Amino acid sequence: MNQRKQLLMPVLVPWQISPSVPYLRLQTLGASAQATATFIGFYKSAARSPGQAGVSVVQDPGEFHLSDTAEGARHRLTRVLFEGAAHARQLPAVSDAEVIKEDAFDWSLVPTGIQVGEAAEDAVRRVNDRWLSKGHCPDPAMYEVQSSNWLGSLGLDDTWHHYILLGHDDYVEVVARGWSWQPGQVVE
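^ that's the sequence the OP posted. Answer follows.
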């Protein structure tokens, strides 16, 4: 059976799920229809130059603690709250090379790939400039899935949304009415 491609629409947020140390965790609260996903978020900061990135060891951030602002820190524990969650699952990466089956999705709304005739360095610069100028990450590794096969198989109407969050070795999928996010403590 040939299923249609599901369109990934990046959510508009100032962070990206850290691709190197996502620390992705899903928590569901039983029959209360609440779910949260917690991860280490990378926040682009115009105050730091690209040369200051460097390599660092990130310690286990522990439990999430709400913090009033995400400004000034490059890595923070971040929590996404799903409103009216009907289904939630955390699954392992489909292979060593892919977290999800990438060819099952339409990535046309994710503007981070190298464009025709563009050098890799130019693509990185373009994405960085877009992130800083628009204030949201072009590819936060959290998407709303349009034309969702999962929603279709559940027989849910268009008041429900399918979200997917990509970690390094696993991913989270949630069917919910909506979502919001909160910045947590700085992760060093």
